[in-house]
Specification:
4 copies of one chain form a homotetramer. By secondary structure, chain A is mainly α. Chain A folds into 2 domains: 2-131, Up-down Bundle (Four Helix Bundle (Hemerythrin (Met), subunit A)), CATH 1.20.120; 148-242, Helix Hairpins (Orthogonal Bundle). Chain A has 12 helices and no strands. In chain A, 42% of the residues are buried. Residues 131-139 and 244-248 of chain A have low confidence and may be disordered.
Chain lengths: 277, 277, 277, 277
């Protein structure tokens, strides 16, 4: 009967670390939320020279402690899920891994540590604990709208990429004899073209010759028209999905950890495993 | 019969300071409009060093006078309303308080005084005196559209917040060895990420390494797509409300001072108090 | 019969300077188009120091000639129209005046001369000669869409104005002790708020304190949402007018010079004068 | 029978260099894709001073080789097409020429060489080899939407052009006595107006006088409204075309090299030549 014991333990751990609608699951999620926020705050503080100089030791020790906790949690998740590999290569599984890995990389390459802030993305999962189905609904309209317009947006981005290379090359040719303009190579000029077309406009690189400024004006006015295209695409697609119902179920699959199953669903939509409730 | 006398006085004061469709109410509102504009103009002038040096005394004295008038008006509003606490904690009640409080705070912390410009928001109430129901209508379509899309926009903003922290951390890691780029800490890098994603692009912080510029280009192009999302949301919601009728009644509730009641309404939609007309 | 003679002359002048569908009218409009382009180009060249130093005399003389021609043309327009005052205070009448007035003002205040470039707006009228009814149609959809959304846009702009004053005052309070940030007075801070909310972002003024940068980030993200509102309004209104027919008549009223009358109209829609055809 | 032989050779070359649905055609397109990417990469590397200094010889020689290959390919295309002049003056024909011409110009004017990056636009044709009809479909909705709104966009751009000249002239008048602001001539001021209206905002030119900053604020807020117009136009037109079917045929016309014929079409929609399949 040992196997049964282990199975029950596994089930209890699963209910705690994955589910949000049991009491201990809710408590766990809230603790996790706080620990993530604290650890992200600490990494930020460590990056500020004046604070790091004073509290270096405190920050390092608490990072050790927090990362150990996250590592244990990651272990428990792998242990409690029925199909560990499915979990590891799922969206949340990769984020969970990316939120502890940088710390260990940081032991060898100090700068790598700051990547650990990717763990803030884990909050996407913690949104569930607020039971805000309206939020969830809103989120899904966005996600569905973006998914549906993916192809159009990829074509659009490829087109922008080609345009930007052509513009960058032409501007480099025009401005290359005026090093004070900042157009020192084609890759830099392409960077300028992106900065200009997206209307960001830092001003670290800007044309100084009359012809260069004329061309830049043309580019900006083109960018004006281009900015309209993604807006049109997303608005169009979002309109299609705005009236559609979205499942409000926050239960997670015990096999792969996926969520957002239909109400009354008995099997996971992603891996086919049996759902608990 | 003294109580009745007091009640009549209260009623007359209410008609003057709150209502816009009586003669004395209209006159009061126009005076208020002018006084607010004058006082805001004076605070602006005081902030200009050359003007402050010359007219310091005149400006200080007139500020004393104007703030006294606003304080008296605030007292009259509390006195004439039937449920003072409801008024004090209503939207306009808080703005009315915020427009006199900074002056008194300014006696102790000089800089606080400039907050008094919040009183310009009181003009939102004075819009009524123009009897521009079309304006009001327009305003309400905007307000309704924004209210309805609140949830979607909160989800969207949370998402932007997470994205911005991740981008800031990565850019800090890439650019930290080049202090001339300005990426001196993660909070600063997050500030840069906001400046870039919103396409503001001051240029006080901008990447100098090739890889940093490549990442920045990716961020800008993402921002290009992201800018489309709120536009889509607001357009969608505003379309829903564009044909809907909006009450044109500018009467205010004598109990809590709330406005925009339905035509023919007998009780306040917010506090349930009886309306006058 | 002298009066009749004068009337015929007036009619012939009117057909030449106002109409676009007679042969001499078309010729006149093309000449006018060229003269306007030449004169605008000359004013531009005069503003470039190196060119002005060399060709000062040529430029001055040709400006004299061109302005004389435009003055004569203005006189002919007043003479040939039946209700001169109506023409003088119409949209095109004011532009016609503004395109010669700066030159005469320039005799006393040299800088005033450059205002003469307003005459480029006269090209709006010359668009007719291309007989591009599709263009005209397109233009009118834009104009109608903008006109209809005027009220909503005025409310929106008033609101932006109030917001910008509040933000400017708060930022001035936060950044006033750091003159290197550029927030030297409240008007300057309001200018910064406009530059930031509209996502222009010059970078000549930008916050340097941590709290100031945090507030600026909030302002930018608000601006992100705000940019969606006019887009929504204009899209909404333009959709309404996109299918509507627009008159293709380019004939002008002989009394006041107004155009775009309905096909078959016998009286001017603006001044009630009789139309020729 | 020699003529027949030549015809068969011509046909086989056509199938290779123009078609994408035969095996050798697909192989050819993939090779072409790689060669274009390599050659564009090389031109970029050559523009970076440090890399050019070290690998100048290697880069020059490989450019010679690649351009020779592209020249041969261009010759084969002209040879294999039935109506060479039609091909030469078609959209792709011009791009094919522009991608080899700059190299030969570069022998006389070194800077011209960098224009060769225009060849990246040839990738537009290579998109076909992925057989991504969905992509193609997406692309065509964009193209159709833009084509249909062409007239409205031209009117809109003309209007922006006029506005920008007027704004530039006024700002020059206001700021000309403050050379540190950068408004040194009207053309420069017009460049500033474009940079500001499109919300790019480099900050290399920005007003310093109070009145100039006030006018700039007005311009920015106008720009805010103007940015809404192209978005509205494109969204409107794209909506019309979003449900329309688009031919998925990638076959090219053997006479002029045009693609996107209707399924089952027997004659080219552009030149009327007979299609192969």
């Amino acid at each position: 009967m040992e196997k049964y014991e282990k199975e029950r333990l596994r089930q209890r751990i699963f209910d705690t670390v994955f589910e949000a609608n049991t009491r201990q699951g809710k408590l766990f999620d809230i603790c996790l939320l706080l620990l993530i926020l604290i650890s992200v705050g600490m990494i930020m503080l460590e990056s500020i020279p004046s604070i790091n100089a004073r509290y270096h030791k405190v920050l390092i020790i608490s990072e050790w402690i927090l990362t150990s906790l996250f590592t244990i949690e990651y272990g428990l998740r792998i242990f409690s899920v029925k199909k560990p590999w499915r979990y590891i290569f799922s969206f949340y599984g990769i984020i969970d891994l990316l939120s502890i890995l940088p710390f260990y990389i940081g032991l060898f390459f100090p700068a790598g540590k700051f990547l650990a802030n990717i763990r803030i993305l884990r909050l996407l999962r913690v949104f569930r604990i607020f039971g805000l189905t309206q939020f969830t609904h809103g989120k899904n309209v966005l996600v569905l709208g973006l998914k549906e317009s993916r192809n159009k947006i990829i074509v659009f981005l490829s087109f922008v990429m080609l345009i930007v290379i052509v513009i960058g090359s032409i501007m480099y040719m025009v401005e290359r004899n005026h090093p004070e303009s900042g157009f020192t190579s084609i890759p830099i000029s392409i960077y300028w073209a992106v900065v200009t077309l997206t209307t960001v406009g830092y001003g670290d690189i800007s044309p100084v010759t009359g012809f260069g400024q004329f061309l830049a004006s043309v580019v900006m006015i083109i960018g004006y028209g281009i900015i309209a295209v993604p807006t049109g695409i997303v608005t169009m697609e979002m309109n299609k999905f705005s009236n559609q119902e979205v499942p409000k179920n926050t239960e997670m699959c015990p096999s792969c950890g996926d969520d957002y199953h239909l109400d009354g669903a008995k099997y996971c939509k992603t891996c086919g495993g049996k759902l608990n409730y």
